[in-house]
Amino acid sequence: MKFRLIIPLSFLLLLGQYTKAQDYDLIIRNATVYNGLGDEPRVQDIAIILDKIVTIGDLKDKTAARSINANFKAVAPGFIDTHAHIENIRELPAAESAMRQGVSLLIGGADGGGPEDFPAYLDQVRELKLGVNVGYQVGHNSVRERVLGTENRHPSEEELLEMQELVAQAMNHGAFGLSTGLTYVPGTYSETEEVIALAKVAAAHGGFYSSHIRDESLGLIEAVSETIEIAEKADITVVLSHHKALGAGMWGASDRTLKMVDSANAAGLDVRLDQYPYTASSTGISALIPSWALAGGSDRFKKRLEDKTLRDSIEKGILYNIIHVRVGDELERLQFRKFDWKPELQGKTMEDWLEMEGLESTPVNAVNLIIEAQKNGGAQMIYHVMHGDDVNRIMKHAKTMIASDGKLSQPGKNHPHPRSYGSFPRVLGVYARDKRVLSLSEAIKKMTSMPADLLGLNNRGRILEGCIADLVIFDSEKIKDMATFEEPHQYPQGIETVIINGQISLEDNKLTEAASGKLLTSQTTKP
After folding, report:
1. Does 257 reside within a domain?
2. Residue 81 and residue 406: Cα distance in Å, rounded?
3. Which of 151, 298, 358, 497 is least surrounded by CB atoms within 10 angstroms?
């Protein structure tokens, strides 16, 4: 009788790894290792097999199929951006503007946005050749719009139940948490109790709650208080998204909001923050328009403008927002980022537009131009409205993570906020190395293990044996963001190598063909 030996294919593949007289797939030698936990760096070698870090130490006598000499440059865990706008991931799956910053994981669905059909969307993303890892939150605005449209009203009991079911469905399909954009239509029409009801669903599935809070300017204190109330009543970890004190009238208010965060945490709540390292924000021109005027969509807005009483009220509201909430009479602080109706204005300011129209640069004259812009599809703006002292104070806080709030971008298209190209290198170069607001170890912790812990990803965001090999090699003396508000389409300097899931994805200033990113879900964190 003849016997046939059956050997599993997986064993043969594994055997093949080690019949080549190589100890590892990849070794990074002479690395100044920042482990992501805030510890001081150590010069070590890092060995990788498949997608995992398997050994850290002195490996000079070990061999690998591929070796990288880091030449004592910094090696850190890949940066994790928990607040990203990646709605265009299907068009830009390589996510080059993020990868070139050293980012290895992007979390979309921020500010209440995201797909209405969450499971179907994830199925599409799963099929992409991703350059970096991606994951998602479920957005309150998307859920509310699916059930209520853009109506300015409270949901019925049945409608609230439907919204809760949609949040539960998304959480069951791997959403990491629930996000809100409480300044945006339609989320701005919700009451606190509605948000609490939905946050409880996310909490029941082990998720967190992140919020573009209801007001980052004159109502900042009340909005932070509301977020803390949601943390308490929903029993959920909360994140104050892109925390800031917006507008000259609120400069310095971060001192008070951070004390509120400290008090909440001392009382047993879990309140965290994220932040981008710039003194300018970016959102729609609609932020200057009273939210009630936008209810029901564009046609309803235009109809209201035909009513003299309503138009007068809208104009007064816009003027108030310009002067008291945003920029005063300094209209050069209102910069156009994306303006399909008048693309020639992208990168220019409201002051420039008024000059083109032959009008004096005053807030009163700007009001009608803002209305015309909104009537013709709106515009995305950059608002130069924050103070550097608040940025520094927030960044130093122990609970603050670094996140870009950026959009996937490609050179030559529109006029993005520079945060889309430079957030993480800017913190490392400007705020850690040059200004010494943070130590380099602290800065790296805020971009790696802290966001990983928020997501429950204990095997990412740190350089430890057994962790996933998402790594970035950078020159701490040369790292620098190059993107500016005038010329945003510029990649940073100093990022030398990016490794995603054990595969070299960026090397010698070029993307490789690895496309080794994965869709991560909350189930990824479960054994």
Report:
1. yes
2. 9
3. 358
Residue 495 lies in a domain: no
CATH assignment of the domain containing 141:
3.20.20.140
Spell out a b/e string for 499-512, using b for 16 or more CB atoms within 10 Å of the CB, else e.
bbbbbbbbeeeebe
HEC states along 376-413?
CCCCEEEECCCCHHHHHHHHHCCCEEECCCCECCCCCC
Sign of the Cα pseudo-torsion (131, 273, 137, 520, in order) = positive
CA 87 to CA 92: how far, in whole Å? 10
Give the sheet arrangement for strand 380-383, strand by strand.
Answer: 281-284, 380-383, 334-338
CB 424 within 8 A of CB 103: yes
Question: Angle at CA 391, nearest 5°, toward 38 and 422?
Answer: 75
Q: By the 8 A CB rule, do 315 and 367 touch?
A: yes
Residues 6+ apart with CB under 8 A from 168: 201, 204, 205
Cβ-contact 315, 429 below 8 angstroms: no
Radius of gyration of the chain, Cα coordinates, nearest whole angstrom: 24
Q: Are residues 261 and 218 in the same domain?
A: yes
Answer yes or no: do 231 and 92 share one domain. Answer: yes
Q: Which residues contact 88 (CB under 8 A, 6 or more apart)?
A: 407, 408
Q: State the CB neighbour count (10 A cutoff) for residue 338.
A: 19
186 in any annotated domain: yes
**Taking the C-alpha atoms of 432, 433, 434 and 438 in order, what is their torsion angle to the nearest 10 degrees?**
20
Tell me how far CA of residue 159 lies from CA of 145, 235, 407, in angstroms.
11, 23, 32
Q: Which amino acid is at 384?
A: H
Q: Distances in Å between the alpha carbon of 174 and those of 121, 140, 206, 239?
A: 12, 16, 11, 19
CA terminus-to-terminus distance, the chain: 44
What's the total number of domains in the chain? 2
Please answer whether residues 164 and 198 qualify as being in contact, where contact means their C-beta atoms are separated by less than 8 angstroms: yes
| pLDDT less than 70: residues of the chain | 1-20, 525-527
pLDDT of 2 reads 40
330 is written with which tokens?
Answer: 């300094």
- For residue range 510-522, list pLDDT tens digits in order: 999 999 999 999 9
Global model pTM greater than 0.85? yes
Digit-coded pLDDT (tens) for 2-47? 434 444 555 445 545 544 579 999 999 999 999 999 999 999 999 9
Give pLDDT, residue 21.
77
User: Does residue 163 contact residue 170 with C-beta atoms inside 8 Å?
Assistant: no
| 476 in a structural domain | no
Q: How many residues does the chain have?
A: 527
CA atoms of 77 and 34, how far apart (whole Å): 8
CB contact set of 330 (below 8 Å; sequence gap of 6+): none
Domain boundary among 436, 459, 482: 459
Q: Which domain holds residue 112?
A: 77-279+386-459
